[in-house]
Amino acid sequence: MKSLALIAFLSACIISINAPAENSYLFSATLTGEQQVEPVCTNTRGSAFITVDPDCGEIAFNLRIKNAEGIFADSGAHIHCGIKGENGPVIAFLAGDMPGGLNGKVTVRGVLTRDNIVSDACGENLEDILEAMLHGKTYVNVHSAANPNGEIRGQLHYTDENECDVAE
Questions:
Q1: The model's pTM
Q2: Which residues have C-beta within 8 Å of that of residue 128, sequence separation ≥ 6?
């Protein structure tokens, strides 16, 4: 009986990666160089979709980037704690260093848990980070060799689930 309950719980958490659960929160961001603090002139563009499921203790993400020359070279992509127009510390890694970077279109998907949170700048737990996200205090930043402080950036906004098919 316990194994059936565990399977049901894990199935609900796995499904949340692809479709937001009833009590999960969907956030999105359009990533551009103009949003960097100092703006960056770049053809690289992107979008980020993040689903926070407090019941499963997970943050599922889908990061899409186009014109990705040099992206992830000696750096990566992160969720940062910070309001629009201000830089802040990394709170979670979305993608890591890839020497030489990438070219073309890139899609990175994954699931983070409490164990992946690297800073308490937006709070000590997933619930605190969710509150920071709901109040516009988080952003996604993608770094490159040419712009190690950030190539493209976008503030995360709470999103209606019907908006999750926005083209990159």
A1: 0.82
A2: 122
Report residue 74 as tokens: 């000696």
Pair type for strands 25-31 and 157-158 = antiparallel
Structure tokens belonging to residue 63: 């990061």
Amino acid occupying residue 44: T
CA distance 17 to 21: 9
Residue type at 109?
R
DSSP string, 21-47: -TT-EEEEEEEBGGGSSS----S-EEE
Residue pLDDT, tens place only, 62-117: 999 999 888 887 788 999 999 999 999 999 999 988 877 777 888 999 999 989 99
Amino acid at 82: G
Express each pLDDT in 9-39 by its tens digit: 444 444 444 455 567 899 999 999 999 999 9
Tell me the one-letter amino acid at 31. L
3 state DSSP class of 82 = coil
Tokens of 156: 């995360």
- CA–CA dist 105, 7 (Å, integer): 35
Backbone φ and ψ for 4, nearest 5 degrees, come out as: -65, -40
